[in-house]
């Protein structure tokens, strides 16, 4: 994965996922600069092992979000089919 793509994907995540990625950086003793705007990390010198770990986490997030979306769609379908307003059982 290109670093620029990695950066964009991380920036577009929700805060809860930012925290998990920050934990990955801290676990690998990556220097983190922090100010009132947030945490900043120089990703240009990251080891490929760390990039792979972050990439795997991003894939995990995407898989979980797809699963949640699928479950919500099934729930909506069941709700429409079995609990529609005005229908008598």
The SS-based structural class is: mainly alpha
Mean pLDDT: 91
Query: Residue share in helices?
Result: 55-70%
Query: How are the strands ordered across the major sheet?
Result: 1-2
Uncertain runs with pLDDT below 50, 5 residues or more?
A: none
SSE order: HHEEH
- End-to-end gap: 54 Å
The tally of helices reads: 3
What fraction of the residues are assigned to beta strands by DSSP? Answer: 5-15%
How is the main sheet built?
Answer: 2 strands, antiparallel
What is the quaternary state of this protein? single chain
Give a structural overview.
- The chain is mainly alpha-helical.
- The protein has one domain.
- The chain contains three helices and two strands.
- A two-stranded antiparallel sheet has the order 1-2.
- Helix 1 crosses helix 3 and helix 2 packs antiparallel against helix 3 (48-82).
- The longest helix is centred in the last third of the chain and has 35 residues, at 48-82.
- The chain is elongated.
- The chain starts with a helix and ends in a 7-residue tail after the last helix.
- The mean pLDDT is 91.
- This is NET domain-containing protein.
- It comes from viral metagenome.
